[in-house]
Amino acid sequence: MAGKNLGDIAAVNAKYYSSKGKAIYSDFSTFAQGSALATANAIGFVSDFEGTGNEIIVCEYGIGNGNFARVFLGELSSRSPELYARTRYHLFDISEKMISDAKKNLATHTSICEFCIFDAAQELPSMPFDYCRINELLSDLPAEIYMRRNGGIFAPDGKAVPHPPLFAAKFLERIERERQIPFSFVAQEFLSALCGCGKEGFRADIFDYGFYTADDIFSMPVDEWNRLVARTYGTQITVDLNFLQLSSAIAAQGFSALVEQQKGYCERALGMPLAFSDEGGKLDYAPKKENDGIEEDDGFYHLRIEG
Ligand SMILES: C[S@@+](CC[C@H](N)C(=O)[O-])C[C@H]1O[C@@H](n2cnc3c(N)ncnc32)[C@H](O)[C@@H]1O
User: Fold this and answer.
1) Which ligand 1 atom is at minimum distance from the Cα of 31?
2) How far is the CA of 121 from the centre of ligand 1 (A)?
3) Domains of the chain in sequence order
4) How far apart are alpha carbons 114 and 27 in whole angstroms?
5) Does the Cβ of 215 fall within 6 Å of ligand 1?
6) What single-letter DSSP state applies at residue 160?
7) Tens digit of pLDDT for each residue in 183-233?
8) Using an 8 Å Cβ cutoff, are 151 and 79 in contact?
9) I need a labelling partner for 209 at 20 to 30 A (CA). Which of 122, 236, 259, 285 fits?
C-alpha cells in the first residue's frame, strides 16, 4: 500500500463495514466462510465445557455474515444438545447492516443469540464470558507502523518518532533498518480488557493473519514486506497482526497465551491432515489428498488465551 496513512484506519473501516454488510465477501473471503475452523472450535468448546452444569456465555466480536456462529452452533447442537441448551451466544459488531444480515443467517438459533452494536476501535469489552471467539477482527483495528533508520525510529512517511512506545523501540532493536513493523496497540488494549472480563477458567480463541516467528519476518525481502504489511481490500484497510506483541502482553497480565498456526490447530481438533482449499471462493481447510504436495505456511495464526 503506497504512502501508508493508517491514522484514519478506524474511520475508513467503520465506513466500509457499515455500508457493505455481508457484501464484504465480494471483496475477500475468510476462514469463517468455510467450516473447518468453526467445527474445530465447536469440538474444543464441547471438550472444555460439557458437563459443567451452568449457563455458558459465549461472545463473538466482528461477526461478519454470521456464518462463523452458524457453523459453530450447528456443530454444537448435534455434538452436545445439553451444552447447546445452556449456551447463550452474544454477537458484537460495528455494522448495523452486518448485524441485520447475520440475524437472518442465524434464524434457527434466535432463542440463544443476542446481538449488540460495538466498536472495538473506540470501546472496551465489558461482557463477562466463558468462551470468546474472534476471526479477522483485530487486523482491522488501528495499528502503528515503525521502522529503524539512522539510529532513530521513524514512521513509514519518513517522519521521526521521538518518543516511540517502549515495546516498539525494544522490538525494533532486533529488526534491520527500514523494515516496517506493525504494532497492534488498539488490539492489545482490546484483548487486555477482554481478559479482564473473562469469568474464572475462561477460554478465548482468536484467529487472524500476521507474524509470529523470526522466519515470518525475515524470510521476505524488506521492500516486499513493507509493501504487503498493510493492505486494502475494497476500500478497507487491514494490517498484519503482531502476534509476538499480543501474546507477550497477555502473558505479562498473568494469563496463558499460546500461539500456533491456524491450520495446525484445525488438524489437531479434527484429527486429520488438512490442505488449504478455496472451493466456491470460500477459504477453508479440506482433508489433505496424496497429491496435495507440501504447502507453505499460510500466515494465519491461532492465539489461545486461558484464564
Ligand atoms: C474481516 S471481517 C471478518 C468477519 C467474520 N469474522 C469472518 O471472519 O468472516 C471484520 C468484521 O469485523 C467487523 N468490524 C470491523 N471493525 C470493527 C470494529 N472497530 N468494531 C467492531 N466490529 C468491527 C466488521 O463489520 C466485520 O463483521
Assistant:
1) 8
2) 11
3) 22-140+184-208+243-306 (3.40.50.150)
4) 27
5) no
6) B
7) 999 999 999 999 999 999 999 999 999 999 999 999 999 999 999 999 988
8) no
9) 122
Q: Which atom of ligand 1 sits closest to the CA of residue 121? A: 19
Which contacts of 294-298 are long-range, i.e. CB under 8 A and separated by 24 or more positions?
297/216, 297/261, 298/209, 298/261, 298/262, 298/263
**C-alpha cell at position 44:** 474444543
Residue 162 C-alpha to ligand 1 middle, in angstroms? Answer: 33
Q: Is the CB of 135 under 6 A from ligand 1?
A: yes
Please, which residues bridge with residue 260 across strands? 302
Q: What is this structure's pTM?
A: 0.96
CA of residue 28 to ligand 1 center, whole Å: 12
Q: What are the C-alpha distances in Å from 238 to residues 69, 89, 137, 148, 217?
A: 22, 27, 9, 22, 17
Does the C-beta of 63 come closer than 6 Å to ligand 1?
yes
Placement of cell 522466519 in the chain: 215
Residue 134 in grid coordinates: 474472534
Q: Contact, 113 vs 89, CB < 8 A?
A: yes
